[in-house]
Design goal:
This protein is an alpha+beta fold. Among the domains are: 37-230, no CATH class; 417-506, Immunoglobulin-like (Sandwich), CATH 2.60.40.1180; 511-613, no CATH class. Strand 5 (414-417) and strand 6 form a beta hairpin. The two termini are 45 Å apart.
Length: 614
């Protein structure tokens, strides 16, 4: 039986300052990139479709095609997040908020000119700016001449407006979102069941998720009913069946947001009344949880990423699908949102274990720390390298989610439940609430001790610390220099603290190894929560294009195989087979291998999985 709604509340982004050095640099690079982009160019297509003259021209890449406008939605969320992120310098926060206002005001101007509540930024494929939606309803989906996932693009725009309002309180953002939601509701309510099925066959992002979020703000029933139109019941039923290979050949980033919508139906509506009827949305929570379990158990690599060339394969077929096109970054962006929501709904710390791993080893790993540019794929086959976007030419989907990822680095660290503060990620940071201020200083995994300083507390409270899945033993703690007993429960250890207290938490950290269900002798290694990889040099790092102008590393994989004296001993105590040298770990093998943190590797070829034999 799944435990239903908890009283957990996630800390607001504005309450968390991340002080970790690597993350500070990541945020700095992202903010610099966001400030370099011009609102006028992001709005150019919207102005053109509204019949408003503008001197600006669209950006290139995906923004110049029938998916144009999707970046504006991601960008709007990103600058809104940055404008309230206390780790961003105040002057830059003001600049980011001005960009929020400029974008929202521009969309409001376009919406007024169009007159229907609709706003749209892609080039017209016909004289009617709604033509892409008409084509989708007729099943006409040529991405160059008819329709390139218009509902997906609209989801990004609507979500950006909603998030802009939620983060900044800028009222016009909600006004534009409400009118756009009305347009969606009117269109969706006119569909026959046959038309609805036709529409849902084409990627629509998280339209249900965004509309439930909008309903939570407007409380207009038509917004909740429109969200429910995008709830794909047949898919939910299949996943709830937990049958083998239920995800086989599904497009991963098309599918994950559908379950974000299912979860949001539960979080927004469960137990409440809608048009006089009480809503029981427990089935949707179960569907989201079953989906998460299926993905993480049968389709996930050591980084926390999933998929090969954007698609799920058969259950437990992972080694055979290691190529240069694994682990689309958007997938993990959405899986983190799903994990966060499921933790809020259930309190099960396994969702935070996933968040911790995927954030460190897939999201942090997706950014070039010199340029701030981000990846589309991250190859799981050995011998390839990371390929990053360019500032003004790609505008891939993962460019947009990348903008969001690196302006919300403090997400998922702290949660409140009454008088308790939950710490779910060991990342150096400061939490500031009205009655509580806590500083977390961490050096994991290289220093296995965390210090937690209670700077302010109006009254004593419980500090609940996640027992991470990477811990090599039970933690020990000292409070104000003296040993203190930790109480254990629900995957956490708990200690009572008050203002002025300082807690020192020590968590044993060792090398661990993780195989693949079909991998035989292929293994990945991590030190604590940090995935390690082997550098394979930077010679001949050529790229090619695949799909819709996506840049990938070219060439053939370069398998890495080593011999160890005793394979069974390696399985039992992998730490004994490594010598640590700072952040590097040398494997005692033939030949010796030099491992280091994968998230920091961005200029060379790598191997995450190594074949090991006696």
């Amino acid at each position: 039986m799944m435990k239903l709604k908890t009283n957990l509340q996630a800390a607001e982004l504005s309450q968390v300052t991340v002080t970790d050095g690597y993350c500070k640099n990541a945020l700095e690079k992202e903010v610099a990139y966001l400030l370099s982009l011009q609102e006028g160019r992001l709005l150019a297509g919207f102005y053109e479709n509204a019949g408003i003259k503008t001197p600006f021209v669209r950006y290139g890449g995906w923004e110049s095609g029938l998916m144009g406008g999707h970046t504006l939605g991601h960008y709007l969320t990103a600058v809104a997040q940055g404008s309230v992120n206390p780790a961003v310098p105040e002057n830059d926060r003001k600049k980011l908020f001005q960009k929020v206002k400029n974008l929202v005001d521009g969309l409001a101007e376009c919406q007024k000119a169009v007159g229907t509540g609709f706003v749209w930024g892609a080039p017209k494929c016909e004289s009617n700016i709604e033509a892409q939606f008409d084509h989708v309803e007729r099943g006409e989906t040529d991405i160059e001449t008819q329709a390139w996932v218009p509902w997906y693009t609209l989801h990004k725009i609507l979500a950006g407006l909603v998030e802009a309002y939620k983060f900044t309180g800028y009222a016009p953002a909600l006004s534009v979102a409400e009118k756009l939601g009305d347009w969606v509701a009117a269109r969706a309510s006119s569909w026959s069941e046959e038309t609805r099925k036709t529409v849902l066959e084409t990627e629509y992002g998280g339209m249900n998720d965004a509309l439930y979020e909008l309903y939570s703000l407007t409380e207009k029933p038509q917004h909740a009913f429109a969200a429910h139109v995008f709830d794909e019941e047949e898919l939910f039923d299949r996943v709830l069946s937990m049958q083998p290979n239920v995800l086989d050949d599904l497009h991963a980033n098309t599918t994950i947001p559908k379950f974000l919508g299912a979860l949001n139906r539960y979080l927004t509506l469960h137990g409440s009344e809608l048009s006089g009827e009480k809503v029981d949305a427990s089935r949707y929570l179960r569907a989201a949880a079953c989906f998460f379990e299926t993905v993480t158990t049968h389709h996930t690599y050591a980084t926390g990423g999933n998929s090969e060339w954007e698609r799920f394969g058969k259950d437990d077929v992972l080694d055979a699908e290691r190529t240069n096109c694994n682990c689309e970054t958007c997938n993990v962006y959405n899986m983190l949102k799903l994990a966060r929501g499921l933790f809020l709904a259930t309190g099960d710390k396994k969702y935070c274990d996933y968040y911790d791993n995927a954030f460190t080893n897939q999201i942090l790993s997706s950014q070039n720390p010199e340029t701030g540019m981000t990846t589309y794929f991250q190859a799981m086959a050995s011998g390839y390298f990371k390929v990053f976007s360019t500032p003004e030419q790609n505008f891939w989907c993962c460019t947009g989610t990348g903008m969001e990822n690196f302006t919300k680095l403090g997400d998922g660290i702290y949660y409140r439940n009454g008088k308790s503060l939950f710490v779910e990620r060991y990342l150096s940071s400061v939490y500031r609430g009205e009655e509580l201020e806590v500083e977390l200083i961490c050096g994991f995994p290289y220093d296995n001790t965390a210090k937690i300083k209670i700077r302010k507390a109006n009254e004593p409270f419980l500090l609940c610390l996640r027992l991470p899945d990477w811990a090599a033993g039970y933690p020990e703690a000292k409070k104000n220099g003296s040993p203190v007993k930790l109480l254990e429960g629900s995957g956490h250890v708990t200690v009572a603290v008050k203002e002025g207290d300082e807690l020192e938490l020590t968590i044993p950290v060792e090398i661990a190894m993780k195989g693949l269900p079909d991998g035989g002798n292929a293994f990945a290694f991590r030190y604590g929560g940090v995935l390690l990889s082997v550098g394979l040099g930077s010679e001949d790092m050529r790229t090619e294009q695949t799909g819709v102008a996506v840049t990938i590393p070219s060439g053939e994989p370069r398998e890495v195989t080593v011999k160890v004296g005793d394979l069974y001993a390696l399985f039992e105590e992998p730490t004994k087979f490594f010598t640590r040298e700072g952040e590097n770990f040398v494997m005692k093998s033939e030949p010796p291998l030099n491992f280091s943190p994968h998230f920091k590797r961005y200029k060379e070829r790598y191997a995450i999985y190594v074949r090991v034999k006696e």
